[in-house]
Amino acid sequence: MQLSKRNICPFCLKEVVATATWCGSCGRDLPSNKPYPLEIPPKIEFYEIVPDGALFGIALRGEIKISGLEMESAQIVLAALNRGCELEKQDKSMSANLR
Fold first, then answer.
1. By the 8 A CB rule, do 22 and 28 touch?
2. Exposure of 47 by Cβ count < 10 A (0-12 exposed, 13-18 middle, 19+ buried)?
3. Residue 41 C-alpha from the chain's centroid
4. pLDDT recorded at residue 17
5. What is the pLDDT of residues 34-70, one digit of tens each?
6. Would you say 14 and 1 are in contact if contact means Cβ atoms under 8 Å apart?
7. Which residue spans within the chain are E strands per DSSP?
């Protein structure tokens, strides 16, 4: 089985067949003079609370970034950091939709 080449719609960011002239998802005409290769957006990673001796730390990808926190403080910091990650993710999707 041969896979067909895929592109990304520059308007809704959905996959389309490379030879498509319009997007089956959003219905917009695709630009014919500029290729839009399939790009996988970077995965947004989230921070997590991890044990750090008798206290707790905040880690990203298994690496402790902040250490020596009480659980309540760790939860507050974690919520703030992950809220920042969510806002970054929203900003990236909004800017992608404006292209």
1. yes
2. buried
3. 6
4. 85
5. 555 555 556 667 889 999 889 999 998 888 889 999 9
6. no
7. 6-8, 15-17, 48-52, 55-60, 63-69
